[in-house]
Structures are given as structure tokens and as C-alpha cells.
Amino acid sequence: MTDALKRLIQAAQQPEKADLIIQNGTVVDVFSLETFEADVAIKDGYIVGIGTYPNGKQVVDASGKYVMPGFIDGHIHIESTMVTPSEFSRALIQYGVTTVVTDPHEIANVAGKIGIDFMLEDAANADMDILMKLPSCVPATPFEQNGATLTADDLRPYLTHPTVIGLAEVMDYPSVLNANPDMLEKIRMTTEAGLEVDGHAAGLPDTALNVYSSAGIRNDHEAVTAEEAIARVRRGIHVLVREGSAAKDLLALLPAINERNSRRFSFCTDDKHLDELAEEGTVNYAAQLAIQHGLDPLIAIQMATLNNAVCHGIQEKGAIAPGYLADILITDSLETLHPETIIKDGRVLELAALKNSRAVVPEAVRSSLHLKKVTKAALQIPLQKGQKAWVIGVVPGRIITEKIAADVQTEDGFFVADPQNDQVKMVVCERHHQTGSIGAGIVSGLGLKRGAIASTVAHDSHNLVVAGTNDEDMLLAIEEAERMQGGLVIVDGGKVLASVPLRVGGIMSEKTYEEVIVELHVLHEQLATLAEESQNIFMILSFLCLPVIPRLKLTDKGLFDVDSFQHIAVGIPM
Ligand SMILES: [Mn+2]
């Protein structure tokens, strides 16, 4: 350690000893939101100097270009891209995202510690720095059945792992409010280790923000309005502005951001489908979008770099300054932000030679579907003729849903789908312990006109969720999902039209990101024959099971009213 320090100090004093010099560039100073001409000296993967350096062992000429920090994503679930961490890194690093803060609660809900171990091992093979926060709520609530339970004792050993930087989104607000001993121990042990605790305050009132901030939970990515963002900033809660595939909050939150408070905002993704990610990136895209809508480019860059590092207590990342890690982008435009050169750990990254070795998937994770046979009778929703029902209403561009009291079609005392009125049946089948537990409900706004779709990506318990216009296609979709041991399936007229196998816990593919993109394109082509707006229908479906996001959701135990935090019947008493 001392020798390493000596080498940095020596190179700072004598930059000719630096490993790499970036010359003639315009440095983006994210501390004071300005740019200035200077050379940058790099030694042993660290920036050791900013000044005028005529020589160095290796020189990169940045004449006419900007030199800025590598992008940091403040919160992302890699599993939502449906590829493993090392493949995720290969797909995304080309956009200049050199570090992500990830929460592996998806695979943890399926496979517990074995799932976390796989993610840590696979992430270690990546060019990108994939930093992890420990999943705080597995299961997310007691109102669903997932694949594993993680207590404070289960998590504690991971706190000393070199890439673990804190506790991930605390979604179970009642467990904090009621001072649940295990939840308080998770928070305590994390803050005692000097690490940060992430929030998840979707739809919570200001009093709940007081509870979270008082409990040491001081960042949140669930604000969906400018008012909600300001309420968080005023209580010392850092606001992560989310722009993903299903949740697109950036434009709504932009009005809240100004030069005075910009340090309390940063960009995150949460969940993004692979094809969109490979097409446009993540927080780089969010920064571009913000700039296109009037945000000062330097503030946007600060929100995609330094502010995320500060939010998560990552000391050596997020800026171009001595002592910071040399994760650097060289670009010709502060608007498009597309990096021409990416420097990672002080070395110029060769995009044609990215790391691509992957961890072995444990057999228990490869065969994670333990589903009791599903019968047609189990799919039925008893309703009397003329009886109104509570219907889950999809909200475009949001993962919140509406709770709608609606007239629905019935036949012989059971609900029947009414695709013309965009009302279809939805079931969640428990698939971890063969309990046969099945929740059934009605969803409107999914846009499914024919057939059925099934998925084992169903936040957060990742049971098997199926939506359909008829029972026969729904049953076939369930059978195909089980045969594949997890994945996405579309069925119409008694035939499987397309599928994307996801063997890693039923939520990630074993294939390369390029192969999965091809499978997704075929899936979307076939989906277009069944549904309007088919691009994100599986991502939307995956959030209809999440009982910590308002208002009305469906778990394997039935319809769940998030506001009253309890299960309710589908039929409204006549
Ligand atoms: Mn999730």
C-alpha cells in the first residue's frame, strides 16, 4: 500500500513518470460546473495531475475534445436486461457507463445467497465496475411467496466484500415504521460499516419521508413528480432521477432541478430492456434527454457522474481530479456525450476486445421452476352477473397502476376476458416451492388483443405471471414456460409463437447479449400481431405483481391493495 502511494505521489510530482497523458483536451470540471484546457496525467489507474505535460509513456491526443468522468448509474437491476452481469457490461460500456450501482434482489428473490454469489462472481469478469448493494427486502413483503428469505445474518458477511457498497432499496416501509428488528439490524449494520442505505419511497407521504430520513435512509429513486422530488430534497434525501423502460420519470422531475440544488440529484435506470439498452445506453441517454429538454449540459454530466458517487459514498469516482480513479471519456460534444475514447482504470479500452468470460451458473439456479400443475379450474375468477370488479389499470410509462372499479364480462358465474375493452385475465402461479398457490385478477390497459403471454420475470418474487384472452392459450403458455425452465412466451390459437428462454433463475439468459437481442426482435415481431404498443408489454407485465408499488397489484396470494397494504377480493360486494 505504501509503495503504491509513493508511486502516485512521485508521478504527481514528476508527470513524465505517468503511465498515460491525455493531452490538449478540455476538462469538464463537475465540481464547479465549468470547462478548462488542461492535460491529465494518469498513474497506476489513478489521475495524479492536471496541468501541462509535454511527455509521458503513452499519450492520447484530445485536441478539440472534452475530457470528462466515466458515467455512473445510481441504481439498476441488471437482471431486468435479461443477461448476466458480464454480458450487461459488454453491451453497455461502449456508451461510457463505466460504473453501476446494482441491486441483485431479483436473483436473490429466486435463489437467495447462491444467486448473489453468482452475480458477484460473474460481475468480477466485467470491464465495468459493477458495485452491489445488498438486497434489503427479500421477500419484498409477506404478501407473496418468493424463492428465498434473506435476514440480516444472511447479509452481514457480504458487507466486507470489496464490491459491496451498502444496503439496497428498503421497500418494505411498514417494517421500518414498525421497527421490525431484522430490518433495523440490516440498517444498523450497514450504517455502522460506514455504508449507505438506499430508499424506495414509492407513493409515500412526507411523514414517511421523515421516517426514512430519520432512520438513515437518505436516497430514493421513486419520485414521479417534481413536487415529490422537492419533498425529498428538503428532507436531506438524495433524488435519483429514473429513466428506464417501464418507469420514465425524467421529464416530470426536470422542473425541480436547478443550479442551487443540482448536487442532490443524479440519474439512474432501475430497469431497462436489453434491446433499448443496447440501442441507446442508460444514464448517458438520460443525460442526453435532459440536455435536449433544456438542462445545462454540465449539470447533466454532474448528475451522471459525481453526484452518484457522492450519493453512494464512492470516494474515488465521478470526477477528473488527482486521487480519483481514471475512468475517463473523451468526446467531441457535450450534448450527444458519445465517447470516442473510453479509459477504464487508466487504460484505453479496446471495444473490440472486451472481457467476455462468464461465471458457471449453479444447477439450482439453472433449474429454478418448481411449479405444481395448473388446471383450467385454477384460472377461474368467480363473479356474479352484473357484479363490478376491482381491475388493475396499467398507466403508460409508469410502474404504478390504478385501482379501477369496473363493469366486467361474466359467463356462468366466472369472469371472461373482454379484449375489445382491453380487459384480460391475469394469474400469478407460485413456482418456487410447488405450493400450487395461484392469484387471479383482471388487468386493463395491457393492450393484449388475442392469445396469451407468460413470463417468469415478475417483480419481485418472480413467480410465473400469465395474461391472456382465453384459458387454453394461458395454459399452453404456462406449460411452455415450465418446459423452458423460465423465460418469456407468447401463444396464440393453441400455438407457441415465440419465446425467450431465461435459464438463469428464470430471469436471465445464458446466451450472449447479441443472441438475446435477436430473440427479443423475433418475440416483438410476433407480439405485434397480438398487442398494441408491444415494445414493453413484458416489462409492464413484470411490474403488475409488485406489491410495493401503488396502487393495485396481483401476487400468488391474490389481488393486493398497496395503499391499505392488504389483499382484497376481485369482486366488489353488490
Ligand atoms: Mn425487482
Automatic annotation (TrEMBL):
<dbReference type="GO" id="GO:0006146">
    <property type="term" value="P:adenine catabolic process"/>
</dbReference>
<dbReference type="InterPro" id="IPR011612">
    <property type="entry name" value="Urease_alpha_N_dom"/>
</dbReference>
<dbReference type="Pfam" id="PF00449">
    <property type="entry name" value="Urease_alpha"/>
</dbReference>
<dbReference type="GO" id="GO:0046872">
    <property type="term" value="F:metal ion binding"/>
</dbReference>
<dbReference type="InterPro" id="IPR026912">
    <property type="entry name" value="Adenine_deam_C"/>
</dbReference>
<dbReference type="Pfam" id="PF01979">
    <property type="entry name" value="Amidohydro_1"/>
</dbReference>
<dbReference type="InterPro" id="IPR032466">
    <property type="entry name" value="Metal_Hydrolase"/>
</dbReference>
<dbReference type="GO" id="GO:0000034">
    <property type="term" value="F:adenine deaminase activity"/>
</dbReference>
<dbReference type="Pfam" id="PF13382">
    <property type="entry name" value="Adenine_deam_C"/>
</dbReference>
<feature type="domain" description="Amidohydrolase-related">
    <location>
        <begin position="66"/>
        <end position="343"/>
    </location>
</feature>
<dbReference type="InterPro" id="IPR006679">
    <property type="entry name" value="Adenine_deam"/>
</dbReference>
<feature type="domain" description="Urease alpha-subunit N-terminal">
    <location>
        <begin position="11"/>
        <end position="57"/>
    </location>
</feature>
<protein>
    <recommendedName>
        <fullName>Adenine deaminase</fullName>
        <ecNumber>3.5.4.2</ecNumber>
    </recommendedName>
</protein>
<keyword id="KW-0464">Manganese</keyword>
<dbReference type="InterPro" id="IPR011059">
    <property type="entry name" value="Metal-dep_hydrolase_composite"/>
</dbReference>
<comment type="similarity">
    <text>Belongs to the metallo-dependent hydrolases superfamily. Adenine deaminase family.</text>
</comment>
<feature type="domain" description="Adenine deaminase C-terminal">
    <location>
        <begin position="399"/>
        <end position="566"/>
    </location>
</feature>
<keyword id="KW-0479">Metal-binding</keyword>
<dbReference type="InterPro" id="IPR006680">
    <property type="entry name" value="Amidohydro-rel"/>
</dbReference>
<keyword id="KW-0378">Hydrolase</keyword>
